[in-house]
Input
Amino acid sequence: MRRFMSTLLISAALMGGALSLSGCIVVPPRPYHQRVWITGYWAPQHVWVGGHWGYR
Output
């Protein structure tokens, strides 16, 4: 029984590895709004707008 369970576990791990590497199962990425640094820039009439944190 012990040998059967270890064989079953190894075969399940091999099948799981083969499926994950083959690209059959695709999980879409969740939407994640990341904070990014927006650099400063010159606005019209030569006004400097400083850098700030924003969301993408």
